[in-house]
Amino acid sequence: MREQFQKELDGVSTTLVQMAGLVRVAMDNATTALLTADLTLAEKVIADDTIIDEIQHELDARTINLIARQSPVASDLRTLITSLRMSADLERMGDLAHHIAKSARMRYPATAVPPELSLTIEEMGRVCSKIIEKVSTIIEKRDADRALEVEKDDDEIDALHRKIIQTLLDPTWKHGIETAIDMTLLGRYYERCADHAVSIARRVYFLVTGSYTKN
Amino acid sequence: MREQFQKELDGVSTTLVQMAGLVRVAMDNATTALLTADLTLAEKVIADDTIIDEIQHELDARTINLIARQSPVASDLRTLITSLRMSADLERMGDLAHHIAKSARMRYPATAVPPELSLTIEEMGRVCSKIIEKVSTIIEKRDADRALEVEKDDDEIDALHRKIIQTLLDPTWKHGIETAIDMTLLGRYYERCADHAVSIARRVYFLVTGSYTKN
Q1: B64/A78 CB distance under 8 A
Q2: Which domains are delineated in chain B?
Q3: What is the ipTM of this complex?
Q4: Residues 6 or more apart in contact with residue B89 via CB below 8 angstroms
Q5: Closest C-alpha among A19, A34, A16 to residue A190
Q6: For the segment B39-84, what is each residue's pLDDT rounded down to a tens digit?
Q7: How distant is the Cα of B3 from the closest Cα of chain A, in angstroms?
Q8: For residue B72, which residues of chain A lie inside 8 Å, CB to CB?
């Protein structure tokens, strides 16, 4: 019985890793669609978001069913409750990729990002992708050391976000209010995506060590 | 034993209602601080956010403990899992009030909101407050009919949000990029607060009726 339960617990973790993989692809594609005004890719991210949502629904139903059938206590129960929270974080990260893709679609055939910000956005996308990959490993290996690293990665995202705002406020900014609004929201989407990744890393850290990360 | 369990279930609901009350006060104060450049009130919202966070921690620990001790199944288990999700929504709504208050503090002694948008922001604050009050009743009375109303209230928020963006894009806009960035983010904070309220309403609707609201 314990063996079967352990198998099901592992299954929950495997699905979370699978979700993280899809979120990473969505975020990578959304960034590419945004920077290259690729409408087909933007549409794909928008359409594929329902796949992430469906996996979350299935996973949560399975997790709740597992709690009901097995009445776990202590660390098993905490693991399952934490899984529900991590699936919610991942689902929301998928939504944010979806928002970025919608921004790309809205400005097509133009690119939403002006030339002086495209490197910064590319970098935000790259760091975000790195964080999501790390989070995937953290979930899979329950790796507390790597969970601590994510806080530092998030500082990179915050610095890039500040850089966007500085660029918008520079007197030489010549792309007007509409592009400034787009860029404000895009910066926020990447930042929020990284925040959710930090949440996941903190949850795993707590599960493994029993203490909170300093922040 | 069932009687004791029911009492504890009711206790969880009471704490959620209490959280909603604090979130509503925070949102009301944040809006007032924003519109009147009231630094003391802004600081109060910022400081009091930890109270909401602490109540959430205590409530979640209590809820998980209840699941571990009582091994509930079916509707009791669903109610407790839903409580964990609602407390996360409410905690996040508190964060958004905190963000609004920080925006007020950052621009002090100036007001962050220019005169032509102060009525729109006031209205967003009013509708948000109404929604949070409704959500509080929905949790308390498990009122599915009222849960449906929240979707319509959210349409009001979306319309006000569009009005902000239109104002920013109007050729007569004379407050520059920095104020446009502030207003873009503020609009987003109110909108996200209402989105979380809609989530809570949908969760209660599903608990009570067993079906999803149409959207």
Answers
A1: yes
A2: 2-209 (1.20.58.220)
A3: 0.95
A4: B196, B197, B199, B200
A5: A34
A6: 999 999 999 999 999 999 999 999 999 999 999 999 999 999 999 9
A7: 20
A8: 68
